[in-house]
Specification:
By secondary structure, the protein is of the alpha+beta class. The protein has 4 domains: 119 residues, Serine Threonine Protein Phosphatase 5, Tetratricopeptide repeat, CATH 1.25.40; 65 residues, Immunoglobulin-like; 50 residues, no CATH class; 92 residues. It has 10 helices and 9 strands. It is elongated, with a radius of gyration of 43 Å. The protein starts with 15 loop residues before the first helix and ends with a strand.
Length: 358
């Protein structure tokens, strides 16, 4: 055939002559295929051959991903052992040893099934032996008392039947997660080198048994909360907080009212000024006299509202200062308990547990 086989643990690029020989065998296969197989047309064969030529060029330039893409397109038109061999070789050079081994095995299967007449079997034997030694394996040991465990490798759930048997994986670091009913998930990061044989024993710790009822914790919370709310310190804090809130409300409310009164006064003043007179003189006219009354009332309301707003803000400041002082200086007694209720949560596979810390 002209294909140049790779040596164990050495990556190589088949020679150009080998590519031409394989291409010729690829075309010869189209006339030797079983009669029941759907035969590609001559234009399809020409396109497949072009894909193969592009793949061999990419291989010679070590553009392995491009080679894989072109070979897969060619195989979609016509599958041959030679194309599978080259596809395995490209994936091997990408570090995808498991996928490469599968391609070599597929090429061998095509030869033994009689679906191809390509003479590459002498290369496949050593290559398969080499790859089987290079592909690392991971054996996951699950405790026998775990019923229906769930295995996930690199985020993908695999069949539970893989537990206890060597699993071929590509070299590198892999994440392993195992779930079991009534057990905490087992997480592990496993690093595999070429040819490594690793056994990982999964330690699935039983989930802690939660109390069947929550009456005791609830009763404890109610007692503690009741003690906190009946304490003098609590009522002092509540009173000071209420004073602060009321003071802020009064201050903000009367500030807005003062602005509204100022706007009314400004409107009345603009109408009086537009008449070319002043308010004492304008009192003789009924229309302007009304504007003067409105100006006087709005000006009075403005200053009165401003004073009330200032008093409200002063009260809020006093309340806030007292609240801070009480909080910092008046420590709660153990019998009273703390005033604040701080929530915390613990989530497990059995559900979510919420607790409060006083």
């Amino acid at each position: 055939m002209g294909l140049v086989p790779s040596q164990p643990r050495k990556r190589h690029v088949p020679t150009r002559a080998g590519f031409v020989g394989t291409a010729a065998a690829f075309l010869a296969f189209s006339s030797a295929a079983p009669a029941f197989a759907a035969q590609p047309t001559k234009p399809e064969i020409a396109v497949a051959r072009r894909y193969f030529e592009l793949a061999t060029q990419a291989e010679s330039e070590r553009r392995w991903r491009d080679a894989v893409a072109m070979l897969e397109k060619a195989i979609s038109i016509k599958e041959t052992a030679g194309l599978r061999y080259h596809l395995g070789f490209a994936k091997e050079n990408l570090g995808l040893l498991v996928e490469a081994l599968l391609e070599y095995q597929r090429a061998s299967g095509l030869i033994h099934s009689g679906m191809t007449t390509e003479d590459i079997e002498r290369f496949l034997g050593p290559k398969l032996e080499e790859m089987q030694k290079r592909v690392p394996t991971l054996t996951v040991q699950v405790p026998p008392d775990i019923v229906n465990p769930t295995l996930a490798i690199d985020g993908t759930v695999v069949k539970r039947e893989l537990a206890g048997t060597p699993i071929p994986l590509n070299p590198g670091t892999h994440s392993l997660v195992i779930f079991g009913p009534g057990r905490r998930p087992f997480h592990a990061q496993v690093s595999l080198g070429e040819g490594a044989t690793v056994t990982q024993v999964a330690e699935l710790v039983p989930e802690p048994i939660m109390p069947s009822t929550a009456t005791a914790p609830i009763a404890s919370i109610e007692r503690t909360a009741a003690g906190a709310w009946n304490a003098p310190r609590t009522w002092t804090l509540v009173s000071e907080a209420a004073l602060t809130a009321v003071g802020l409300g009064i201050g903000l409310g009367y500030t807005l009212a003062s602005h509204a009164a100022g706007n009314r006064a400004a409107d009345a003043q603009s109408r009086v000024d537009g008449s070319g007179t002043t308010c004492p003189e304008a009192l003789s006219g009924p229309a302007l006299g009304s504007d003067c009354d409105l100006l006087d009332a709005a000006s009075t309301d403005r200053y009165r509202y401003q004073n009330i707003a200032v008093a409200g803000f002063i009260g809020a400041a006093v309340g806030a200062a007292a609240l801070g002082a009480t909080w910092l200086l008046w420590k709660p007694s153990p019998k009273e308990g703390a005033t604040a209720l701080i929530p915390s949560a613990a989530v497990s596979a059995r559900g979510a547990t919420f607790t409060w810390k006083y």
